[in-house]
Amino acid sequence: MRHMAHTHKDLQALATDIKNWGVELGFNQIGITDTDLSAAGAEHQAWIAKGFHGAMDYMAKHGDKRSHPADLVPGTVRVISARMDYQPPATRDSLEVMQDGEQAFISRYALGRDYHKVMRNRLQKLSARIADHIGEFGYRVFTDSAPVMEVALAEKAGLGWRGKHTLLLNRDAGSWFFLGEIYIDLPLPIDTPTTNHCGSCKACIDVCPTQAIVAPYEVDARRCISYLTIELKDSIPESLRSLIGNRVYGCDDCQLTCPWNRFSHITQEEDFHVRNGLDNITLAELFSWTEANFKQKLAGSAIYRIGYEQWLRNLAVGLGNAPSTPAVLAALNSRIDDASTLVKEHVEWALNQHNIAQ
C-alpha cells in the first residue's frame, strides 16, 4: 500500500465519510464489501457452461478475474459499491408506449445521457475526495465495464438483493438504478448484506415477452430483448422477432411489473432526463433519420454505442410488428433497397409480416 497505515477507528470514520461524500456527489447509496466472490463465481461459470451468454464472448473471457477482484486490480482488498437512481421525470407512461404499436419503446435508462460517462465521472470525483482526505491510495473505478460482478458486489455491500430477473432490488428504491464500483486497497470495515424479499412472487418470470427468465435467478441472454437489441450484432432470430413488439432498445418489462418498483424514486440527476423526445416518438420518425441525424441526436447517449445499422435493424423489426398504417408501410418501403444487407433482410421480413396481415 502506498498510503499511510490507518487505525480501525480511522477506517470506520473514513467509511462513514465516503458514504456521506457519495450522497453529496449524487449517489443514492454507498456500500462497502470484501472481495470474496467465490459463490457468485461458481454460479457465473455454470451460466456460461449452459451457453446462456450467447454471443457475449467477453462474459466467458478473463478467467478468474471476474470473481477475483485482486487479479484484475492488484492490491484490491475492498470494493465500494454505489447506486444512482435513473428513472426520469415526466416521461410518457411505458405501458402506454408499448401498447401503441406505432411508437418506439426505448428502455428508460437510455432516454438521457450515457450512464457510463456520468457514473465514471462521479466515481472518479469520489476517489479524488478520498485521496484529498487520506493521501494517495490504490484504486480503479468501474461502471458496467471490465470483468466486474456488479450485482454480486452490490448485494454483498448491502445495496439490495438479486431479484429473480437477476437485477438488483432494493426495498426502498426498487430496481431503477445504475451500479458502479471503486476497487480499493484500503481495509475499510464492510457492510452487512440484506436479505432476499422476492418470496413466492414470479411476476417478472411471467411477464417476460420472450420467456428469457428460464428459472428464478437465471436468464438465457439469447432470448432476452435487451441482448437481442443491444448486444447481438447479427441478424435477430426470426422466431423471436414478433415477440419483441416495439421494443427497439432494451426492455423494461420485468422491472415494470416488479412490485418493489412501487418504492422507486425519480432521479435527481439531470443527465438522465429525457433527450430528443425519445419517450414519445414513432418508429417511422426514427427510421427516417439519416446516419448524420443519428450521430448528432444520439451523441452522448448509450444508444449511440450500437451504431446506426443495428439501430435501423431494431426499428425494422418494430415496424414489422406495428399496425399496417400508411406511415409504417411507407417507412419500410423507403429502405427496401438499403445498402446494409442486415437492414435489408429485416425490412423484407417486416414487409412480409404486413403482407400476411393484409
UniProtKB/TrEMBL annotation:
Keywords: 4Fe-4S, Cobalamin, Cobalt, Cytoplasm, Iron, Iron-sulfur, Metal-binding, Oxidoreductase, Queuosine biosynthesis, tRNA processing
Binding positions for tRNA per the UniProt entry: K233
Binding, [4Fe-4S] cluster 1: C198, C201, C204, C258
Annotated positions binding [4Fe-4S] cluster 2: C208, C224, C251, C254
Cofactor: [4Fe-4S] cluster; cob(II)alamin
Subcellular location: Cytoplasm
Domain 4Fe-4S ferredoxin-type: 186-218
Active-site residues annotated for this sequence: D144
GO biological process: tRNA queuosine(34) biosynthetic process
Function description: Catalyzes the conversion of epoxyqueuosine (oQ) to queuosine (Q), which is a hypermodified base found in the wobble positions of tRNA(Asp), tRNA(Asn), tRNA(His) and tRNA(Tyr).
Family under the similarity heading: Belongs to the QueG family.
Subunit structure: Monomer.
Name by which UniProt lists this protein: Epoxyqueuosine reductase
Lineage of source species: Bacteria, Pseudomonadati, Pseudomonadota, Betaproteobacteria, Nitrosomonadales
